[in-house]
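quick one before i forget lol
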Amino acid sequence: MRREPALPLSLYVHLPWCVQKCPYCDFNSYSGGDDASRHRYLEALCSDIEAEAARAGGRPLVSIFLGGGTPSLFRADEIGRLLDVARSHLACTVDIEITMETNPGAVEHGDLRGYRDAGVNRLSVGAQSFDAGKLAVLGRIHGVDDIGATVKEAVDAGFDDINIDIMYALPGQDVAGALSDIDAAALLEPTHLSWYQLTLEPNTVFHARPPPDLPDEDQSFAIQEAGEARLAELGFERYEVSAWARGGRRCRHNLNYWSFGDYLAVGAGAHGKLTTIAGVARYRKPANPLQYMKQIEKGGDQDAAQKLGDSDLLFEFMLNALRLADGFDEQLFVERTRLPLPALRERLLPLATRGLIAGGEGGHWRPTAKGRQFLNDLQAHFLPD
């Protein structure tokens, strides 16, 4: 089947194990994972990558993202083998971005230089907070000093593109505490900050047993406003709801998601999206690692893809594009969804009247400050009937 060559293509690889599961985490992750299971899982990933190459249809990858879980629980030589298999079966752009998530503390990774030598060129460090008490409430196993030590080790290893994850609206947190976290992260001179609100997701410990002293809606909004102002003062440019970059170092992998590009899925629970002449389709791998490994080892047909209907295409495009601070062009909408413009405009105009979205001139639209404040409501406007 001929593929659509115009859309950028990324690869997501899921490595599902952590030292322990955090009480707020709703990702497909699991505590533990012994050497034998990780070795078996690595073999399955390599086979999966080889099979996914057929979906790529020769298109080059613009990015690879190793997510989890905690990918750095895998040794540098194991990550190196994974990337070697990807490079041998899939074309890659010369400047491909390869991100790996890691957590602070030497217990969860080997020498970061080994990962850099393996080809990882962007590191995402899961700090979450620089307050020891908040880290304890969040169930994090690292200390505050481990964050700075990990970033220093990364710089010494040759990484010049480093993201730090921080959460806000934490239990007992006020504006001053949230700003202190931002300032502490900025002192480490990362190129990128992911600053996002703690939410109580279903199927998490926090959802079943919420921690006390969570900021209410007004307090959370006050933290958000103050934090956004501080990040701008510190020279970070907001380009997505929770993504802030310095020096133009935006995450290309995530931008491909938000602009409705294509991506291959490898690993337990990984989701993929592909555009062909037949339309746009999604597929996913079994979420349970054991079931995933058994399916890959059995071989056979690839996972069945589900073609998206027009209403789903409209919703999924807007769900992502409305997160972008700069908004989107109508031309991008047509290119990525193949839907007619009237289907979009008739949904946008009422929102413009309500002050939730602005633009239209030159075919460009973006959420207003009010629209960003009520982003969930804005996105819900595009839900399929």
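fyi The longest strand covers residues 92-102.
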